[in-house]
Design goal:
Blueprint (H helix, E strand, L loop, with lengths): L29 H8 L7 H13 L3 H21 L5 E5 L9 H8 L4 E6 L2 H6 L11 E6 L5 H6 L1 H6 L7 E5 L11 H10 L6 E7 L9 H5 L14 H5 L6 E2 L5 E2 L21 E7 L5 H7 L2
Parallel strand pairs: 1-2, 1-4, 2-3, 4-5
Antiparallel strand pairs: 5-8, 6-8, 7-8
Helix pairs in contact: 1-2, 3-4
Protein name: SAM-dependent methyltransferase
EC number: 2.1.1.-
Keywords: Methyltransferase, Transferase
């Protein structure tokens, strides 16, 4: 089989609007680039070329992506194990891999409920692999774009899985850097934050060039110029804005490798020492009725 055909899919039935019929293998997609960097096989030649361009620019890209993924695992484990969160809305989940959100959460809380959201049809095609969680909990997936918060929040499947009257962990891991300033990234996040009650958490990670003074922004983002979503790295203060009004959990917004690292980490060291990504978890303050009445609407 030619290398460029690896990751191709069986043909969809004629006239089908199934997700598999809408996969464009000629345009790089962030979820598939990420899959390739993680060592997955659900990617195409265009995705691999974009990923290799990133690796050429920064030899530590592959290790950095894996460190980014490891942060997500530790943060979800904290939310389920220590923060007592039992509901997770994972937006921009990407192609299924080992230790997905529901796997980690249900390991700590078998009854945990997880709703996955992604806008790449190939993610939905493989999403059935996500639906094998603990029978005590619930796991489901929808195809939607985070640029349409109302569609996600009002979706019947999401509403079946998530009870928005109880605390929810909103997960935006490695996805906001694909939202341009013109698309109002902060406004989008605020809509999700407003939809959940006090005691909910926001888990967010974001690509940055703060640790790579030697890299020009235009060189770093170029591999994504022809993809389905451009790359927009942001500084620490810009990333911090996503958490506005919520209380950051220690150690705050930090480089992903330094967010509550495991005592023993057997992953390969990152060339250059940095993962080029910030990560943090914050909690929405619980406002009492008396406080709300005293301060008005």
């Amino acid at each position: 089989m030619p290398d460029s055909d690896r990751g191709t899919d069986p043909p969809a039935p004629a006239g089908s609007d199934a997700p598999i019929s809408r996969i464009n293998r000629h345009i790089p997609h962030p979820a598939r680039i990420y899959d390739y960097l993680l060592g997955g096989k659900d990617n195409f030649d265009a995705d691999r070329k974009a990923a290799e361009a990133l690796i050429e620019l920064s030899p530590g890209t592959r290790e950095g992506v894996r460190a980014h993924r490891a942060f997500l695992g530790r943060a979800v484990r904290y939310l389920a194990d220590e923060a007592g969160i039992t509901q997770f809305l994972d937006i921009g989940t990407g192609i299924p891999t080992q230790d997905n959100t529901h796997t980690i959460a249900q390991r700590a809380v078998p009854a945990a409920r997880v709703a996955y959201v992604d806008n790449d049809p190939i993610v939905l095609v493989h999403g059935r692999a996500l639906l094998t969680g603990d029978p005590a909990g619930m796991t489901d997936m929808i195809e939607a774009d985070l640029r349409q918060p109302e569609k996600i929040l009002d979706d019947p499947t999401v509403r079946r899985v998530i009870d928005f009257t109880r605390p929810v962990a909103v997960i935006l891991a490695g996805v906001m850097h694909f939202i341009t300033d013109q698309e109002d990234p902060y406004g989008l996040v605020e809509q999700f934050k407003a939809a959940v009650p006090g005691g909910s958490h926001l888990l967010l990670s974001h690509i940055t060039l703060d640790f790579a003074d030697q890299v020009r922004r235009e060189d770093f983002t170029k591999p994504y110029d022809n993809s389905s979503a451009p790359m927009v790295p942001r500084r620490h203060d810009e990333t911090l804005r996503f958490f506005a009004g919520w209380d950051l959990v220690d150690p705050g917004l930090v480089e992903v490798v330094t967010w509550r690292p495991d005592p023993v980490d057997d992953r390969e060291p990152i060339p250059g020492g940095h993962a080029w990504a910030y990560g943090g978890v914050a909690i929405k303050p619980v406002i009492s009725l008396a406080h709300a009445e005293a301060h008005g609407p």
